[in-house]
């Protein structure tokens, strides 16, 4: 839509110009009156002339011109730069030999509309209506009006030129370029950086000796990127200057991983309160690109000061702000201090200032020279306080602006272009016919082909008819400068003033950003807590941040927001690793845990925890088992030593030794439980566990059944029952043990015990390695042995009324009842335990207690009787203490029985 409107404006302008050309016989621009224009003109006529439209005075609210000059020496430096360059051309015998170059400089009053109106004076006219120098009724000799003449109702003059220097502001240069393109008048810009002029279809007669804004915008992004700033705000001017630059910034920011927090388009008179508050609301975007004209920039600085946000922002200012006079920036010293000023390549030309010093203010034809002198020196010629012969350049208010060097290069471009054209098409041309030789359309082609060494560097244009120069990056500081005293006399002194110090430069030809040796100052900024650790940034600790989000800590992932450089950090669970595609968390596989060395992006196996002999509980258990083994070994030794005694013989020695084997196997099993589990060890432990119980309780059941059968038989017929001999008892016990073995083998085949890893809670970094007895295997073993113990308990209960000296059944009862209590307590405790370590300890304790109880109740009383009780006493006590009338056969089992000869031997 914008380009469409531009085409409409261009078409209208073209029709306007050609309409004027076709009506010159009856109508002339002399008849057009533009009230309020400043008709002052600084000129020097030559054989070939160039025009210039400059911003020298300020405008008024009613689109007129005022008498107020731009501050300080502006109105001296810019016009005199053109005059100086023209003089250099005329003094160069190799450039336009035998010809002179002239100029006409007029004022646009800082108003695009007035600039367009003033540009009408440079439009070509028919010879029939205008003389060579000026239109009838208008004389340049009477063309100078005092600045106090605010308004003029005189018709427009005509200045014949081969080309013009564009207005300083891009917003003013755009409509003028449209009109000059329609009239085929070449126009060279020297401060017009807007990317609007890149479109050759809209501006075919425009060229410039300054780098376009697109390179300035890229230079800003390069500078921002080099300092690690990824989150910025942008304030840009309404119109082609700011809007085209913002398009470049917006389109190229992603290439540098830079996000734009907020952007504001502002006008010259816009209220900046909302803009200042918006910037402050996005305070993390400390870097702010200010691609605006001088007036809105100053308004923004004022609002920032009112808001109390001084030192909050890193200002990155365009050339328009960089070229603003110090007098206009000083009221906002605190805000502008430390700002980075981007300005196209310029140069201070010492001989130019020598030229200014040679100018006589009294005889100068520059109508703005005298009032500008008064502004700079702070004096008045009217009251005689000004001294015309003093050095004006020594005053502190003298700008020493480098930008006029570009105006000099623009003049030299015209001179070299005209020289090349004349040399090629009409080398014999003289001052009388040279204007006929220099055709404007041919001059345009010649201008695009020039190449020479100018004041700011090499002037030449690329294949796109564009100029690729260098952008200087200066930092605005408040430093001491050497100045002349205010009275203009005496020695030079030092005073504080705004100074632009060069810190870097950007070469548009190769895209390189190079820093100078000058250290950048950050003292003017507020010290705000960093969100990016210094270890994760390439910049030094003094460089401030301008980022949206800090890096996520290890174990966190990015929850992306709309802007690519903004995110929230969310922590993963303890057992989850961080994934990048898609960003989030993923649970590690069982038995693994996120690896902190890789930033929790991968998982490693969790170190296994298992019972070790050096642990506290295993040490205690091993010590107790060793004591139990020692004690049991003593009991076994006593059994061997007293094996011929009546007590030992009556206690079924063969079955007792079978039980001792089971007890020792059980103790060894407890010790093995305290070692590192392996598949083979776990298989062995399973069989040892099963057999230790089978060897203990199978003989015990056989003993209990034997006692019951013997006394049951005695109560009926006093005959010895069958199958009570030691051999038969061994056979019965072996059959029961064999049944256990077969059952264990079956369960081993069905569900083989092995070493297994267990992670009870997936969100805890704890994996245990233990022997898995398997639920079927453990259940079958427990059921079988509990049946044995229960059977023992039943038969022990049935023989509870035996005499005291037939106390084998009593000890069996005590043993099996205690065993039942142990296992009834063990089973729920074991199966409700959550840690395998605890289960292993419980199993070991239960096994140790079980076998120790068996030793205590089944064997220690007999050893005690053998050692401390007289055998004959035991015999004589037979039936004396019993409170029963039971007739016991001579073959009964008792603590103090008769000799084995009293018991009839029976076979199967």
TrEMBL record:
<protein>
    <recommendedName>
        <fullName>G-protein coupled receptors family 3 profile domain-containing protein</fullName>
    </recommendedName>
</protein>
<keyword id="KW-0812">Transmembrane</keyword>
<feature type="transmembrane region" description="Helical">
    <location>
        <begin position="837"/>
        <end position="860"/>
    </location>
</feature>
<dbReference type="InterPro" id="IPR017978">
    <property type="entry name" value="GPCR_3_C"/>
</dbReference>
<keyword id="KW-0297">G-protein coupled receptor</keyword>
<dbReference type="InterPro" id="IPR001828">
    <property type="entry name" value="ANF_lig-bd_rcpt"/>
</dbReference>
<feature type="transmembrane region" description="Helical">
    <location>
        <begin position="778"/>
        <end position="799"/>
    </location>
</feature>
<feature type="transmembrane region" description="Helical">
    <location>
        <begin position="723"/>
        <end position="750"/>
    </location>
</feature>
<feature type="transmembrane region" description="Helical">
    <location>
        <begin position="654"/>
        <end position="677"/>
    </location>
</feature>
<dbReference type="Pfam" id="PF07562">
    <property type="entry name" value="NCD3G"/>
</dbReference>
<dbReference type="InterPro" id="IPR000337">
    <property type="entry name" value="GPCR_3"/>
</dbReference>
<keyword id="KW-1133">Transmembrane helix</keyword>
<dbReference type="Pfam" id="PF01094">
    <property type="entry name" value="ANF_receptor"/>
</dbReference>
<dbReference type="GO" id="GO:0004930">
    <property type="term" value="F:G protein-coupled receptor activity"/>
</dbReference>
<keyword id="KW-0807">Transducer</keyword>
<dbReference type="InterPro" id="IPR011500">
    <property type="entry name" value="GPCR_3_9-Cys_dom"/>
</dbReference>
<feature type="transmembrane region" description="Helical">
    <location>
        <begin position="811"/>
        <end position="831"/>
    </location>
</feature>
<keyword id="KW-1003">Cell membrane</keyword>
<keyword id="KW-0675">Receptor</keyword>
<dbReference type="InterPro" id="IPR028082">
    <property type="entry name" value="Peripla_BP_I"/>
</dbReference>
<dbReference type="Pfam" id="PF00003">
    <property type="entry name" value="7tm_3"/>
</dbReference>
<dbReference type="InterPro" id="IPR038550">
    <property type="entry name" value="GPCR_3_9-Cys_sf"/>
</dbReference>
<feature type="transmembrane region" description="Helical">
    <location>
        <begin position="617"/>
        <end position="642"/>
    </location>
</feature>
<feature type="transmembrane region" description="Helical">
    <location>
        <begin position="683"/>
        <end position="702"/>
    </location>
</feature>
<dbReference type="InterPro" id="IPR050726">
    <property type="entry name" value="mGluR"/>
</dbReference>
<keyword id="KW-0472">Membrane</keyword>
<feature type="domain" description="G-protein coupled receptors family 3 profile">
    <location>
        <begin position="617"/>
        <end position="882"/>
    </location>
</feature>
<dbReference type="GO" id="GO:0005886">
    <property type="term" value="C:plasma membrane"/>
</dbReference>
<keyword id="KW-0325">Glycoprotein</keyword>
């Amino acid at each position: 839509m914008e380009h469409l409107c531009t085409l409409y404006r261009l078409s209208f302008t073209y029709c306007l110009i050609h309409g004027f050309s076709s009506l010159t016989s009856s109508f002339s621009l002399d008849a057009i009156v533009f009230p309020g224009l400043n008709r002052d003109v600084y000129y020097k006529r030559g054989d070939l002339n160039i025009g210039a439209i400059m911003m020298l005075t300020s405008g008024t609210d009613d689109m007129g011109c005022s008498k107020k000059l731009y501050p300080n020496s502006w109105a001296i430096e810019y016009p005199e730069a053109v005059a100086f360059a023209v003089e250099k051309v005329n003094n160069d015998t190799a450039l336009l030999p035998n010809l002179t170059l002239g100029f006409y400089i007029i004022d646009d009053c800082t108003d695009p509309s007035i600039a367009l109106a003033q540009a009408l004076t440079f439009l070509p006219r028919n010879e029939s209506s205008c003389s060579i120098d000026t239109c009838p009724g208008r004389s340049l000799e009477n063309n100078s009006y005092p600045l106090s003449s605010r308004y003029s109702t005189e018709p427009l003059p005509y200045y014949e030129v081969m080309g013009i220097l564009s207005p300083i502001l891009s917003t003013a240069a755009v409509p003028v370029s449209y009109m000059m393109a329609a009239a085929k008048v070449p126009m060279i810009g020297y401060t017009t950086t807007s990317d609007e002029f890149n479109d050759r279809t809209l501006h075919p007669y425009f060229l410039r000796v300054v780098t376009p804004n697109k390179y300035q915008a890229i230079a800003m992004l390069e500078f921002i990127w080099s300092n690690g700033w990824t989150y910025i705000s942008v304030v840009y001017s309404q119109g082609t200057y700011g809007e085209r630059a913002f398009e470049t910034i917006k389109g190229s920011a992603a290439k540098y991983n830079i996000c734009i927090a907020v952007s504001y388009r502002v006008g010259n008179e816009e209220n900046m309160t909302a803009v200042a508050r918006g910037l402050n609301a996005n305070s993390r975007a400390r870097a702010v690109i200010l691609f605006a004209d001088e007036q809105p920039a100053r308004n923004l600085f004022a609002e920032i000061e009112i808001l109390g946000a001084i030192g909050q922002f890193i200002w990155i200012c365009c050339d328009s702000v960089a070229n603003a006079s110090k007098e206009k920036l000083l009221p906002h010293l605190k805000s502008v201090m430390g700002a980075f000023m981007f300005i196209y390549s310029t140069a201070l030309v010492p001989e130019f200032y020598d030229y200014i010093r040679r100018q006589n203010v009294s005889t100068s034809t520059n109508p703005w020279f005298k009032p500008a002198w008064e502004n700079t020196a702070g004096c008045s010629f009217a009251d005689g306080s000004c001294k015309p012969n003093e050095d004006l350049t020594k005053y502190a208010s003298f700008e020493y602006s480098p930008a006029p060097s570009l105006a000099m290069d623009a003049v030299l471009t015209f001179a070299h272009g005209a020289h090349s054209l004349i040399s090629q098409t009409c080398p014999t041309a003289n001052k009388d016919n040279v204007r006929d030789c220099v055709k404007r359309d041919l001059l345009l082609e010649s201008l695009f082909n020039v190449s020479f060494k100018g004041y700011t560097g090499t002037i030449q244009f690329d294949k796109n008819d564009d100029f690729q120069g260098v952008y200087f990056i200066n930092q605005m500081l408040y430093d001491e400068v050497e100045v002349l005293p205010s009275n203009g006399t005496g020695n030079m002194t030092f005073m504080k003033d705004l100074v632009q110090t060069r810190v870097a430069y950007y070469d548009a030809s190769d895209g390189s950003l190079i820093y100078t040796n000058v250290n950048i100052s950050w003292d003017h900024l507020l010290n705000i807590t960093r969100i990016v650790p210094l270890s994760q940034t390439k910049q030094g600790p003094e460089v401030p941040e301008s980022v949206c989000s800090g890096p996520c800590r290890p174990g966190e992932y990015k929850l992306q927001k709309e802007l690519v450089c903004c995110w929230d950090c969310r922590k993963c669970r303890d057992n989850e690793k961080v994934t990048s595609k898609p960003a989030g968390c993923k649970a590690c596989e069982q038995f693994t845990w996120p690896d902190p060395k890789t930033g929790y992006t991968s998982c490693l196996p969790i170190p296994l925890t298992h019972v070790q002999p050096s642990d506290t509980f295993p040490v205690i258990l091993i010590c107790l088992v060793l004591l139990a083994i020692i004690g049991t070994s003593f009991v076994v030794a006593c059994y061997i030593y007293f094996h011929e005694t009546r007590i030992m013989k009556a206690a079924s020695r063969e079955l007792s030794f079978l039980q001792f084997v089971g007890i020792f196997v059980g103790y060894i099993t407890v010790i093995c439980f305290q070692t590192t589990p392996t598949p083979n060890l776990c298989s062995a432990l399973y069989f040892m566990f099963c057999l230790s119980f089978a060897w203990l309780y199978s003989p015990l059941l056989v003993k209990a059944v034997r006692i019951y059968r013997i006394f049951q038989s005695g109560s009926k017929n006093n005959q010895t029952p069958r199958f009570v001999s030691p051999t038969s008892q061994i056979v019965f016990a072996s059959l029961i043990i064999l049944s256990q073995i077969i059952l264990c083998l079956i369960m081993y085949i069905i569900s083989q015990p092995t070493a297994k890893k267990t992670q009870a809670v997936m969100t805890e970094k704890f994996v245990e390695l233990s022997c898995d007895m398997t639920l079927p295997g453990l259940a079958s073993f427990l059921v079988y042995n509990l049946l044995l113990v229960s059977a023992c308990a039943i038969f022990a209960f049935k023989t509870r009324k035996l005499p005291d000296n037939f106390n084998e059944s009593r000890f069996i009862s005590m043993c099996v009842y205690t065993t039942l209590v142990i296992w009834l307590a063990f089973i729920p405790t074991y199966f409700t335990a959550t840690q395998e370590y605890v289960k292993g300890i419980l199993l070991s304790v239960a096994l140790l207690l079980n076998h120790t109880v068996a030793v205590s109740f089944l064997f220690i009383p007999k050893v005690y009787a053998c050692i401390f009780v007289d055998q004959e006493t035991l015999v004589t006590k037979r039936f004396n203490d019993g409170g029963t009338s039971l007739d016991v056969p001579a073959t009964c089992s008792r603590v103090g029985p008769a000799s084995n000869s009293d018991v009839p031997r029976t076979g199967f």
